[in-house]
Amino acid sequence: MIVCLNLFDIQKLRYRGMRKFGLIGFPLGHSFSQGYFTSKFKEEGIIDCLYENYPLPEINKLTELIQSNQDIVGINVTIPYKEQVLQYLNEIDDEAKAIGAVNTIKVTRDKGNFFLKGYNTDVYGFKESLIKVFTPKSQQALILGTGGAAKAVVWTLESLNINYRFVSRNPKRTGDYSYQQLTREIIQENKLIINTSPVGMYPYTDKAPELPYEGIGPEHVLFDLIYNPEKTLFLKYGEQKKATTLNGLPMLYLQAEKAWEIWNRD
Question: What is the value of pTM for the model shown?
């Protein structure tokens, strides 16, 4: 059953037990989450739920947001707050705690108080997407970027016994690379290259990670966690070299459904 609600219907429902979900981050111009969940609610006939964007210029505004929106029961977290949000949570799921990053929060309320529990559904989304296009055979991987999204990638690669090294502007671990250190030979040795950085994200679609792309060939897999635009310059360069390419949309859909499952648990 498909239910289409007009603005007046939605406004009425807000006063009759409407459950609200949303996305925090800053900025949020790149996000597809609101559109995804809004479409999901309409297609599945879910008429008591709304999903909204909550751009927070500072993560310390989270408490105020939840206090002033008593209908919020679930939150997604995106750049740059997946790590910063940890200090504001009452409890963190064991896997998310081990990863060190949260992208999903369940909000429960009791007598005016609220309780926040954090989860990481990026791991599920990334792993399920990756294994469809990449078969690990003692392969080497490069992870571009070291932020919160990279932590979910690391957790997944370790679970699949895939060796990896980070690439960043200022490497902090022995053995990792700066972009300037990358050579054609290094790229050839690492058949899986994952971009977890925001380079190439809307509106800066004319940018790509600075790699020696001449080292990429048909045996490579390039995975860009960015999904807006659907085909980044990074992926276009990979296609030109006949590599397998994948953007972040499949991961988004999978992690979103896992978040929905978490929010609806008793």
Answer: 0.85
